Amino acid sequence: MFLELGDVRKAYGRSVVIPGLSLAVGEGEFVGVIGPNGAGKSTLFGVISGGLVADSGQVKLAGADISRIDAAGRCHLGIARTFQIPQPFLGLTVYENALVSATFGAKLDGHEAEAAACQALEQTGLLPLANNAADTLTLLQRKRLELARAIATKPRLLLLDEVAGGLTDAEVIELLELIVRINQSGVTVLWIEHLVHALVSVAQRLVVLAEGQIVADGKPREVLEVPAVRETYLGSDLDDDNEVPQPQSGDSHAAC
Question: Is pLDDT of 215 > 90?
Answer without folding.
Answer: yes
